[in-house]
Specification:
By secondary structure, the chain is α+β, with helices and mostly antiparallel strands. The protein contains four helices and eight strands; from the N terminus they run H-E-E-E-E-H-E-E-E-E-H-H. It has a single domain, classed as Nucleoside Triphosphate Pyrophosphohydrolase (Alpha-Beta Complex). Strands 1, 4, 5, 6 and 7 form a five-stranded mixed beta sheet that branches. A three-stranded antiparallel beta sheet has the order 3-2-8. The protein starts with a helix and ends with a helix.
Length: 147
C-alpha cells in the first residue's frame, strides 16, 4: 500500500443523484474490472482541460445516456487503494433529460439510504455516502415544525 501514495492520484468525479422519492442512484462496477462487484456513484476520469463538473456531464451522457445539471460540490475524497490512488470530486446532480441506462456498469439501482447501507461500496465512495446521509438528515430536520 505504500507505493500507492507515491503514484499520482487519478482525478475522478462522481454524481450523487437523488430522485423525488429520496432514493439515490447506485452503479455496480463490472466484474473483471478494477473494483469489480463494488457499488459506486456514477462518474469517471477528467480529460485534459476539463473541470470536474464538465467531466461529470460528459461521463453521465456517455455512461448513462442522460443530460444532467451539476449542482453543489460535496467534499473531495482522497483514497489510496492498494493498486492506485484517487482524488474523487462528488457533486449533487439532477437529471434534466433521459432515463439512466447502464452502458458501463453491470447494474444501476435506485436505493433508499437504508438499502444503500447494505451495498458493498467502493471504499472511496463511502465518505460521499456518509456526507449524503448527513445532508438528507439535515434536510429532514429542517422540515420539522419548531417546538
Amino acid at each position: 500500500m505504500a507505493d500507492a501514495g507515491l503514484r499520482p492520484a487519478l482525478v475522478v468525479t462522481c454524481a450523487v443523484i437523488v430522485d423525488a422519492a429520496g432514493r439515490v442512484l447506485a452503479a455496480l462496477r463490472p466484474r473483471g474490472k478494477s473494483l469489480g462487484g463494488k457499488w459506486e456513484f456514477p462518474g469517471g476520469k477528467l480529460e485534459a482541460g476539463e473541470s470536474a463538473a464538465e467531466a461529470l456531464k460528459r461521463e453521465l451522457h456517455e455512461e448513462l445516456s442522460i443530460v444532467a445539471s451539476v449542482g453543489p460540490a460535496l467534499a473531495v475524497v482522497s483514497y489510496a487503494y492498494e493498486e492506485f490512488s484517487i482524488e474523487l470530486h462528488p457533486f449533487l446532480v439532477e437529471i434534466v433529460e433521459g432515463i439512466p441506462h447502464p452502458h458501463e456498469h453491470e447494474e444501476l439501482r435506485w436505493v433508499t439510504m437504508a438499502e444503500a447501507e447494505t451495498l458493498d461500496w467502493a471504499a472511496a465512495d463511502v465518505p460521499v455516502l456518509d456526507e449524503l446521509r448527513e445532508r438528507l438528515n439535515l434536510a429532514v430536520d429542517q422540515r420539522l415544525p419548531s417546538r
